[in-house]
Specification:
Shape: globular
Number of strands: 6
CATH topology of the largest domain: Rossmann fold
Number of domains: 2
Largest sheet: 6 strands, parallel
CATH class of the largest domain: Alpha Beta
CATH architecture of the largest domain: 3-Layer(aba) Sandwich
Helix content: 40-55%
Number of helices: 10
Oligomer: single chain
Distance between the termini: 9 Å
Strand order of the largest sheet: 3-2-1-4-5-6
C-alpha cells in the first residue's frame, strides 16, 4: 500500500529543541533537589510533562500538591520558550515540502503543548501540517498508543497508508502499539536505543527513499 500520510514527532525530530528542554527541566528540578541522569529527558522525550514530573517526584520521595506541580510545569515551559530555537530544522522542512509535493499529508503527533509549538514555529510553518495532535487531544501520553490512534482517526486513513518518524523510545513504542510502521531517526539518540522501530535512519532523505510511490 502506498503511503498517504507521515506522522512526525515534534521535539528533536522536526525542531532542534531537546537542549532547551533539558536545560529548562534541569534548572527547575534542581530547585527541588532532583538531579537528572545523563540523557534522561532524551530517553523520555514525548512523554506528557505531567507524567514526567509525577514519576520524578515519586522516585525521589517528594510530595507536592497538584497546584504546586502544575506551577512547576508552567515555570519549566516558560523557561523553555525563552531558550528554544525558532523554526523547523532546514532538512526537516525540505522533507515536509518534498512529501507535500507528492500529495502526502504531514501531521504532527507530540507531547508538547500548543503554546510551546506556536512559540517556535511561524504560522507559515504550522500551516504545512494538516493535523497537529497535542496532549489536549488524547488522554494517555506516549508510550501508550493514544496519541497515534488519535492521529490515525483524524487522518481518516488505515494504518497501512501511514508511517511514523520518531526519535525516542517512548514515541516508537506508542506508534508501534497503534499498529503503525515506524522509522526512527538518530537526531538525538544512538541507534542501539531505537531498536524497537521497524527501521532506523540517519537522514531525512532516507525517509523519502523508503516511501512507496
Amino acid at each position: 500500500m502506498s503511503t498517504r500520510a507521515v506522522f512526525f514527532d515534534f521535539d528533536g525530530t522536526l525542531i532542534d529543541s531537546m537542549p532547551a528542554h533539558v536545560s529548562a527541566w534541569s534548572e527547575i528540578l534542581k530547585g527541588i533537589g532532583i538531579d537528572l541522569e545523563d540523557k534522561y529527558f532524551e530517553m523520555h522525550e514525548g512523554e506528557k510533562a505531567e507524567d514526567t514530573i509525577d514519576t520524578l517526584l515519586r522516585e525521589n520521595g517528594i510530595e507536592m500538591s497538584d497546584a504546586e506541580r502544575d506551577e512547576l510545569i508552567d515555570r519549566k515551559r516558560a523557561l523553555y520558550r525563552s531558550r528554544a530555537p525558532k523554526g523547523l530544522i532546514p532538512e526537516a522542512r525540505a522533507l515536509v515540502n518534498a512529501l507535500r509535493e507528492r500529495d502526502i499529508f504531514c501531521d504532527i503527533v507530540t507531547g508538547s503543548v500548543k503554546r510551546n509549538m506556536t512559540a517556535v514555529l511561524s504560522d507559515e510553518e504550522l500551516a504545512l501540517f494538516r493535523n497537529i495532535i497535542t496532549p489536549d487531544d488524547y488522554q494517555r501520553g506516549k508510550p501508550q498508543p493514544d496519541p497515534y490512534l488519535t492521529a490515525l482517526k483524524a487522518s481518516g486513513l488505515v494504518p497501512g497508508a501511514c508511517l511514523v518518524l520518531e526519535n525516542a523510545p517512548l514515541g516508537i513504542r506508542s506508534a508501534k502499539a497503534a499498529g503503525l510502521y515506524t522509522l526512527a531517526i538518530t537526531t538525538t539518540l544512538p541507534p542501539y536505543v531505537l531498536n524497537d522501530a521497524d527501521r532506523i535512519i540517519s537522514s531525512f532523505q532516507e525517509l523519502i527513499d523508503s516511501i512507496k510511490p
